Amino acid sequence: MAGPGGDMQWCFSQVKGAIDDDVAEADIISTVEFNHTGELLATGDKGGRVVIFQQEIENKNQPQFRSEYNVYSTFQSHEPEFDYLKSLEIEEKINKIRWLPQKNAAQFLLSTNDKTIKLWKISERDKRPEGYNLKEEDGRYKDPNTITSLRVPVLKPMDLMVEASPRRVFANAHTYHINSVSVNSDNETYLSADDLRINLWHLEITDRSFNIVDIKPANMEELTEVITAAEFHPHQCNTFVYSSSKGTIRLCDMRVSALCDKHSKLFEEPEDPSNRSFFSEIISSISDVKFSHNGRYMMTRDYLSVKIWDLNMENRPVETYQVHEYLRSKLCSLYENDCIFDKFECCWNGNDSVVMTGSYNNFFRMFDRGHRRDVTLEASRENSKPMQVLKPRKVCTGGKRKKDEISVDSLDFNKKILHTAWHPQDNIIAVATTNNLYIFQDKVN
Amino acid sequence: MSGDNEETQTAEETPVEEKEVQEKTISPEKAEEAKLKARYPNLGNKPGGSDLLRKRLQKGQKYFDSGDYNMAKAKIKNKQLPTAAPEKTEITGDHIPTPQDLPQRKPSLVASKLAG
Asked: Which family does the UniProt entry place this protein in (chain A) (predicted)?
């Protein structure tokens, strides 16, 4: 796959997590996100924990420099709860993490579970005051009668300590399960979306939020679709989109009215009614929507494909990429084992030329929009020698299976890559398998 | 859109037997649907409709009835297994777990293995 400066070759860089196959539920990775500079990489898991990795740049002057991500901070973001009033068990699983752009020395991120969003401050402490007048170095208080002179405490360097503290807790605003949070380009507000409603918050205010979308029908028997994802436009602070379980995307303009129930644009691809089957609606459900960095396009992921939409064209996508079309003839089994409901995410590279999404058998796919080329790669411990180049994988759909190909029936549907992230500038990607985080980078970075 | 893809797909397949040629005319999706309906004849015709969505919205719902709870507790004391409740969206009756069956809802005190 060609990129600027020659062919892109993806190499193994690092893998994080336990090696053993016996996966504890708490260790299942549920979200992965780079910050705006790519220096920090955050993961959230089913156990409510957040782990943040920091990039250590070894030697940028060398042509083939290896940037390693090492643990920077880890904390328990959410804990399991039980809502006694509604008899509802609230999972601690982190559904989404979104970084705020950096404003000062500290870093901020929003992390959310099904019901509560939290703003976490991650700050560094590398100095501490020494030479107090009233305290000994170990903290014990001195007897004031023994003090004969005064001194000014001095700041002395200490081993770096990274502290995470919850600065805001945004609770009690969602009846249904939160699937998305998105920080606005105004750096003051953000939205949170659940199955039926979207709320607008101010980052400083926790006791109030504005409802901007409400698709709950008066009679729940008439419920036909739910909100699956939502995102603010990267530059226009008045614009956001939300996707539905019926495969539609609505673009809303907050300047039009306080309640954005009426969309400004409706993106929907017409379907041939003769092709309609029992599975049509289920596989058309959009599991992720992401604006391109330049704000001109958006990408959606449904069960079998990735679609690129031009914001100026509502009636069909401009590009469609098949992720694993060979699964179309396996839909019956995939419905029975619930895999048909798996929610895959997708992401853009820094200059919007390549998109990436996950699949089964720990495969993930990249689509080069410009060169019209795609590749299937695998995240596996078998290909985890330092700087080992990843070999493209191929799934055999029928007939004679060539050497190195894998047949559809041999695919492991328990090994799903749902979460992937691309460094905002460089060709470094983070790919999450069930409980491991793989970091790959382009050989000629 | 999906129709176009299926056409290009079937065009690549090499026809071997006449039976295969006949199967080409039925889309793989419809063939899968027929398979599913054969296995579950009672399946409703509203796959993405209210039932599925309501089940999604009710995720996490755990009802408790003290009468059912005590009945279930008494049943286990008599070494009787609680009978399975009929297929319903709400879980009540004998499905209520006794304290011994409840999974421990404690937060993860262990650090994430990604950080280890």
From this structure: Belongs to the phosphatase 2A regulatory subunit B family.
Q: Which pair of structure tokens corresponds to residue A261?
A: 């129930």
**Could you state, in order of their start, the residue ranges of all structural domains in chain B?**
24-58
Chain A neighbors of B69, CB-CB under 8 A: none
Rounded CA separation A439/A103 (Å): 27
In 3D, which of A431, A411, A407 has the Cα closest to residue A419? A431
As a whole number of angstroms, the distance between CA A181 and CA A187 comes to 13
Q: Name the burial class of residue A310, with classes exposed (0-12), middle (13-18) and buried (19+) by CB atoms within 10 angstroms of its CB.
A: middle
pLDDT in tens, A240-275: 999 999 999 999 999 999 999 899 999 999 988 888
Contact list in B for residue A177 (CB cut-off 8 A) is 57, 59-60
CB contact under 8 A, A47 and B57: no
Take residue A97 and report the two structure tokens written for it. 């993490």
| Chain A residues with beta carbon closer than 8 angstroms to that of B56 | 195, 226
Q: Are A49 and A28 in contact (CB under 8 A)?
A: no
What is the C-alpha separation between A220 and A215, in angstroms, rounded?
A: 11
pLDDT score at A150: 92
Cα separation of A92 and B107, whole Å? 8
Task: Read off the amino acid at residue A294.
Answer: N
Question: How many residues appear in chain A?
Answer: 445
Residues B39, B86, A177: CA angle, nearest 5 degrees: 85
Question: B interface mutation test: which of A20, A328, A400, A431 has the most B CBs within 10 A?
Answer: A328
A360 to A337, A417, A437, B88: CA distances (angstroms): 14, 6, 16, 31
Q: In this complex, which of B5, B64, B114 lies closest to A325 when CB atoms are compared?
A: B5
Q: Say whether B57 and A269 touch across the interface (CB within 8 A).
A: no
Nearby residues of A63 by Cβ (< 8 Å), 6 or more positions away: A444
pLDDT at B48 over 80: no
The number of helix segments (H) and strand segments (E) in chain B equals 5, 0
Distance from CA of B1 to the nearest CA of A (A): 7
Which pLDDT does position B10 carry in this prediction? 43
Q: What is the pLDDT of residues A3-44, one digit of tens each?
A: 433 467 999 999 999 987 788 999 999 999 999 999 999 999
Distance CA A332, CA B61 (A): 28
Asked whether A345 and A301 are in contact (CB, 8 A), the reply is: yes
Give the pTM: 0.85
CB A51 within 8 A of CB A43: yes
pLDDT classification of A1: cutoffs 50, 70, 90: very low
- Whether this model's ipTM surpasses 0.95 comes out as no
Are A183 and A232 in contact by the 8 Å Cβ rule? The answer is: yes
Question: Which residue of B2, B13, B36 is in closest CB contact with A278?
Answer: B36
DSSP assignment letter at B4: H
What is the distance, to the nearest Å, from the Cα of residue A64 to the centroid of all Cα atoms in its chain? Answer: 28
Give CA–CA dist A217/B50, Å, rounded: 11
What residues contact residue B68 under an 8 Å CB cut-off, 6+ apart?
A: B92, B93, B94, B96
